[in-house]
Design goal:
Helices cover 14% and strands 34% of the residues. By secondary structure, it is α+β, with helices and mostly antiparallel strands. The strands form 2 sheets. Strands 1, 2, 3, 4, 5, 6, 7, 8 and 9 form a 9-stranded antiparallel beta sheet that branches. Strands 12-11-15-14-10-16-13 form a 7-stranded mixed beta sheet. It starts with 9 loop residues before the first helix and ends in a 7-residue tail after the last strand.
Length: 313
């Protein structure tokens, strides 16, 4: 069976864009209207951070020419950048961790997550030197048990991290919803989620969904996103028809602002044993990398895979 082209859905995207009512152009989705729970988030020095392995603060390595932390690792967790969260996170409440990262070696993988006694939800993102600075966001639910919580930056290859933040997600989303009209009226390439049309590729459902580009570079992996995400909602959602996928509530910004504006791409093939991962074109991968600079739908797990009925059941 051949995969279905996505061109017919362009009209739908134009209709969704008509939700915009105008306003001043926005260069970047606002992300700093809530208090940051992390200290020394711009790495002015090493204070408040625990640096393990080949990692260190460099005064001129950051996004704006200021401080940034360099991490070099042949294997995951050879080097880590860690901060123990000062304020107590409210059990059961959702939070968002965000950070900017750039690769200084090819085929690097950036990992961002949180850690507590008995848990370490995290997401993986492939980054390349030519990508420049990339923003990664990761949403998680605070555990019910009391104890320490840490934000952890790691990965493989050579990376530079800067501008790390921890916000209460529900409050942040409620207040950020007001910025969407400006964002849609701008020239930003912005989407609220990703739909991968994998019909005809042999893709099956699984616990380890990943997205690669045709050059073999990792675009997304959330294999250890946390029990709440993995078992209650899944790393990705699945649909058997494209129309079903683009109407899925997972693609909405939030319940209070249910805008759905999906980026739709075709999968070239399914890979893995079993075939739970997809390969997309390099051009589509670049569109995703550009889009998540404005709104990181990957870190929010706003991803739908479209596959054949009963695949993987």
């Amino acid at each position: 069976m051949r995969r279905r082209p996505v061109g017919a859905w362009c009209l739908l995207l134009l209709l969704l864009l008509s939700l915009s009512t105008g306003g001043a152009a926005a260069q970047e989705f606002p992300s700093s209207i809530e208090a940051n729970h992390l200290r020394n988030s711009t790495f002015d020095d090493e204070s408040y951070w625990i640096l393990r392995g080949a990692s260190g603060v460099t005064t001129s390595a950051g996004r704006g020419g200021g401080g940034g932390v360099r991490v070099a690792s042949e294997r995951e967790y050879d080097a880590q950048v860690i901060q123990t969260v000062g304020p107590r996170l409210v059990p059961g409440r959702r939070y968002t961790v965000s950070a900017w990262v750039r690769a200084t070696s090819p085929q690097a993988v950036a990992v961002i997550g949180v850690r507590w006694d008995g848990g370490h939800p995290r997401v993986f993102r492939g980054v390349q030197p030519e990508d420049g600075w990339s923003k990664i966001e990761f949403r998680f639910v605070a555990p019910q048990d009391d104890g320490w919580r840490q934000v952890v930056l790691s990965g493989t290859g050579e990376l530079v991290w800067d501008d790390v933040a921890l916000y209460e997600a529900d409050t942040l989303e409620a207040r950020l919803a007001a910025g969407w009209e400006e964002l849609l009226a701008s020239e930003a390439d912005v989407f609220t989620g990703l739909v991968v049309n994998a019909k005809g590729t042999g893709l099956v459902r699984g616990m380890n969904p990943r997205i690669y580009d045709e050059s073999g570079r990792l675009v997304f992996a959330g294999v250890e996103a946390g029990d709440e995400q993995m078992y209650s909602r899944g790393i990705v959602a699945y649909a058997t028809e494209l129309a079903e996928a683009i109407a899925h509530p997972r693609l909405e910004v939030s319940e209070i602002y249910p805008l759905r504006l999906p980026l739709i791409v075709d999968a070239q093939e399914a890979v893995g044993l079993p075939s739970t991962a997809v390969v997309i074109g390099d051009a589509d991968a670049q569109r995703i990398r550009r889009a998540v600079q404005h709104y990181d739908f990957l870190g929010r797990f706003s991803i739908l895979f479209v596959l054949e009925p009963f695949a993987g059941l």
